[in-house]
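Look over this entry.
=====
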Amino acid sequence: MAEVNDDDDGLAEDPHDLTSALPEDLQHIPYKFTKLSEAEMLKRSENFYQLLNARRTLRYFSKDHVPLEIIKNIIKAAGML
């Protein structure tokens, strides 16, 4: 296990001592970049703004059951940020 230096952000000094949390047999999925037109970027940014502008802070929570698969998807999405 790597020794941690208290003077920094807590990361191991030698990155080669770290172990990945991902499975070793995880298949790489190449990123397929598609350049968007300026008009399409503007349209998407406006739609994204409208979506976020409609959100509000929750002050009350439902006691309804939430399926585990939905919770797993939320956690996966949060991990992508």
Q: What stands out?
A: The chain has a mean pLDDT of 83. The first helix runs from residue 38 to 53. Residues 1 and 61 are 42 Å apart (CA to CA). The two ends are 28 Å apart (CA to CA).
